[in-house]
Amino acid sequence: MKQMISRKLAAVLAVSGAIFALVPAGTASAAQRCDFSFSTGKFGCTGSSSVRKSTDVIGARIYTGTDYTGDMLTIWVPQPCPKNDKVDHFMNLNNSSWRNRVNSAQAFSTCWVWLYRKDGNRDGPFQSNHPDLTFAGDRTFQIGLS
Amino acid sequence: MISRSKVLAALAMAVAAMFTALPAANATHAGQPTVQELMSRCAGADYCQFKPYGAMTIFNGSRQLAGSGTNCTSSLMTRVINYSATTGTKNTFGVEISGGVELGEIFTASIKASYSVEWSFSSTKTDEIRQEVAPRKKVNIYASKQKSRVNGTWEIHFGSRYYGHYYWYVNGSVEGQTKGQAWDIRAEEVKAVC
Q1: pLDDT tens per residue across span A47-63
Q2: Terminal CA-CA length for chain A
Q3: A129 min Cα distance to partner chain B (Å)
Q4: For residues A76-90, average pLDDT
Q5: Are A67 and B155 inside 8 Å of each other by CB?
Q6: ipTM exceeds 0.95, yes or no
C-alpha cells in the first residue's frame, strides 16, 4: 500500500512537470505588465491576482526591452523549480509581443530561464538578472523553466 | 483507517503549502507581516535579492539652500560664498538600505549587474563661489542633484514558514543617485534684510 501511495504521490507531483502553455496571440500593447500562470493557464494584464493561484510563486520575468523595459511578463509556477535536470515548464510565445523580443529576463524561485529557437537550439540557462539578451532574444519563440 | 485519497490530498496540500508566495506584500492586517517586518528579516533569510524592473528613471531632485552672502553696504561688493549640500537615498520598503547594511550591499550589487552603473547612497557638494552682490542685496546659492529612481521586487526565501509562507515578494522603489550624476548650482539675488 505504501508503494501505491508513493506512486500516486509521484503522479500528483508530476502534474507540475513539463507543462506546455501558450501565451495568447496579439496581446499586450506598449509597456504592459502581464501575468501568466502555469497553475491556472490564465493570462492577463490587469494584475496577478486574477491570473495566479494564491500558492503560485514567480518563476521568471521576461521583457521586450533591454534593462527590464518594455512589456513585462511575469510567469507564475506552482512551486519553485525542483532542479531535477529537466525543463519543467515550456511556454510558447505564440504571436505575443515577447516572440522574438525577449531582450532581458530575470529568474526567480530557483528557476533557470531557457530561450528556445525555432530550429530547436536554445540559449541558457539564465539565472538571476540579465539586462541584455538581445543576442538570443530576437530568435526566441518559446520559454523554458528548469 | 484513513483512506488513500485523504492521505494523497493531504500530501498534495502539504507540498503546495511548502512553496507559497504573496507578491507585493503590503498587507498589514492580522496574520500578515508588514512590509517593514518582512524586509527587516530579508538579510537573515535563506535568499534575499533585489530584482529591478523598468528603466531607471532620471529626474532632478528638489533644490536646497546651500549657502548665501549678504551685502548690507551701499556699494557693489564681491563675496566669497561657501556652500554645501547633501542628498541621500530613500525607499518605500520601510527599512534602511544604505552603504553600511547588508541590504544596501545586495541592492548595489543588483544595480551594477542590471544597469552597469554604481549606486551612491549619498552625495555631497561643497565648494565656494565668488559672487558680486549688489548693495543691500543677498545672494542665495541653491543646489539640486540629478537623481535616479529604480522600481523592483525583493525576493525573499525563508527556511521555515514565515506567516505561513516560505516565499515572499515585496515591490517598491528606491530613490537616490548613481555615481557621476551632476549637481546643478544656481545663484539668486534677493532683497537683503539689513
Answers
A1: 999 999 988 999 999 99
A2: 32
A3: 6
A4: 94
A5: no
A6: no
Instruction: Single out the residue of A127, A124, A104 nearest to residue A114, CA to CA.
Output: A124
Best to test chain A binding among B149, B161, B167 (most A CBs inside 10 Å): B167
Q: Which residues of A touch B8 (CB under 8 A)?
A: 5, 8-9, 12
- Residues from chain A contacting residue B18 (CB–CB below 8 Å): 79
Q: Does A56 touch chain B (CB under 8 A)?
A: yes
- pTM for the whole thing? 0.78
Buried b (16+ CB within 10 A) or exposed e, B31-70: ebbebeebbbebeebeebbbbbbbbbeeeebeeeebbbbb
- How far A131 CA sits from the closest chain B CA (Å)? 5
CA distance A67 to B81: 42
φ and ψ at residue B67, rounded to 5 degrees: 175, 170
**Of the candidates A104, A106, A113, A107, the residue with the CA atom closest to the CA atom of residue A134:** A104
> Of B149, B161, B48, whose CA–CA distance to B101 is shortest?
B48
Which residues fall within 8 angstroms of residue B189, CB to CB, at 6 or more apart?
B133, B134, B137, B138, B139, B140
Interatomic CA distance for residues A127 and A124, integer angstroms? 8
- Amino acid symbol at A40: T
With a CB cutoff of 8 Å and minimum separation 6, the contacts of B54 are: A68, A69, A72, B151
Domains of chain A: residue spans and CATH: 33-145 (2.60.20.10)
Strands (DSSP E) found in B134-182: 137-162, 165-178
Would the CB atoms of B16 and A78 count as touching at under 8 Å? Answer: yes
What does the DSSP 8-state code read for residue A25? T
**Bridge partners, B85 (sequence order):** B125
